[in-house]
Input
Amino acid sequence: MRIDRAVLREVPLELREFFEISSGGMQARRVLLLTLEAAGVEAWSECVAGETPGYSYETTDTAWHVLTRWLLPALVGTEVEDARHLDPVPWLRGHPMAGAAVEMAGWDLEAKRRGVSLRDLLGGVANAVPVGVSIGIQGTDGDLLDKVEQHVAEGYRKIKIKIKPGRDVDMLRMVRDRFPDVPIMADANSAYTLPGDLARLREMDQFGLMMIEQPLSHEDLLDHAQLQDRITTPVCLDESIRSLGDARLAIHLESGRIVNIKPGRVGGLGSSIAIHDACVAAGWPVWCGGMLESGIGRAHNIALATLPGFTLPGDISNSRRYWEEDIVHPEFEMVDGLMPVPDGPGIGITPRVDHIEKLTTRKAVFDA
Output
């Protein structure tokens, strides 16, 4: 099978509300969408790189550069036996989000070529996956309580609350007092350090949190191990896990007890499966995080979350949680806290190509 064509588009999407984490906030996303064509089949993926290097060194613009300068020119025109293993520039160091866009489009292509769902090609086992919701840092405590109450009423099975120094212990206490039985976790996005914040992080043990996600630096597995040894709340690693090697080292050091797997962050679906398998072997539960994706990226995440080790609710919310209008049909909508898994070929949903074309601000086309 020859890769005949690749199309990369930049599509701006407005969030329904300002979304703030410890390192900053955003009101809009510059989404990169990749289309691959081969043997009459069209496959889709999304590059999750953000507008700034606040989460990763990769950004929308660096990913565009790497994709258009190296990855896509090397890919188009090549013959492949199995599109799940697209790696057109094996010498490329880093840039997992750009590489994941190519790799994940390959999985969609291979699934469609075989006439099976992406879930089935991945080896997934679920027809629906439990989902949670992520709440950004709010302007007031009252705003936060209103958001939690709204999402609990909607049926989400996990409430993730973004925190930072000064908006953490008292805020979590208030939420726990109001919602004593709701599954709650905190996400720090590397906002804390040791030893200075150890006492503050220990205080959070009293709230019965499911986990505290990425409390320390994205590069410091050793400090996370020391922290986990000193608190009872499970530490969940996110930004620290960029590869199977990172996951194996974290397990060896006991740097936490849970891993959030985001396929874009770790280089694609193949790497995600390998990390999943390593965590399952170690007895660590995993869950699928989100990067404010459109429905195209969300479809890939949902398929991944059907693997058996994904036992905790993921950040795979309704399309309308973030967007007034998604770019896929049908839009994603959970039922009783569960997100149905598309069972059509590939990602199982249909990109709204005409709508996407109207929104596109930048486009690069590569033909064989």
Notes: DSSP finds 13 helices and 15 strands in the chain.
